[in-house]
Amino acid sequence: MTEEQNILKMIIEKENWEEIIYYIVNVQNIDPWNVDLVKLSDSFLKFIKATEDIDFRIPAKIVFVAAILLRLKADYLSIFEEKEDDIDEMLKEQKPFEELGIDPKLIQLGYPMKRIPKRQITLEELMGALKKAMVVEKKKTERRQLWQDKLQTAVAVEEEDITVRIDKLMKNIDELMEKLNKDKLGFREIVKDWKKDKVVSNLIPLLHLEQSQKITTEQEEFFKEIFIRKKYKM
User: Fold this and answer.
1) DSSP string spanning 128-159?
2) Are both 142 and 204 inside the same structural domain?
3) Are residues 127 and 209 in the same domain?
4) Per-residue pLDDT of the chain (234 residues; tens, 9 = 90+)
5) H helices of 1-122, where?
6) Which of 126, 151, 176 is the last residue of a domain?
7) Which domain does 21 fall in, by range?
């Protein structure tokens, strides 16, 4: 592996997009007080292509920064005065992302940021704008993941038949009472993993068991412990 490849490997492994930009600015002799966006974006894409050629995994945030730079390059060249369809066609003709196996839609993600005016741009201003875009994207990703987790939890709870859950809970109550030699259990003793989805998935069958008069429940205060007793037929 050459010295240049070692440098690429070190930077990519740290997943530090800032270091990539500083490296390119230094190697390509880009003026930090008047950044050439065309040269920087082209060099950034070449950097990614070089890492792909030596079989390095390209981190998602570095791909995202590349998408932003390409969008800024397009803006800098004033192609946004054309129709949106024409812009998409021009971006397709370059095919820098498709050649890397990257979804071209990522380019659109790089644009919910304050547009940099068509004037002299310093490296500090550019880095600041990119960092803000990264924060916005991180929040979006976290929100998407949160909703996906909630959806998966809801689906998982619904997928299991309520009758099965009722029988499973009754069996659990019987076994715990016998094991602990108790005739009264706290709800927390039944739900070991005290997470919202687990609480809900056990609470609904518990209410069904009480409705069918197989158990009785009591709660001295709202939001306090629920105590469970088996109801024996006379």
Assistant:
1) HHHHHHHHHHHHHHHHHHHHHHHHHHHHHHHH
2) no
3) no
4) 555 556 566 666 666 778 888 888 888 888 889 888 888 888 888 877 776 665 566 667 777 777 777 777 776 665 434 444 444 444 444 444 444 444 444 444 444 444 444 557 888 888 888 888 778 777 777 777 777 776 666 656 555 577 888 899 999 999 999 988 988 998 888 888 877 777 878 888 888 888 888 988 888 777 788 899 987 654
5) 3-14, 17-27, 37-53, 60-76, 84-94, 106-109
6) 151
7) 3-151
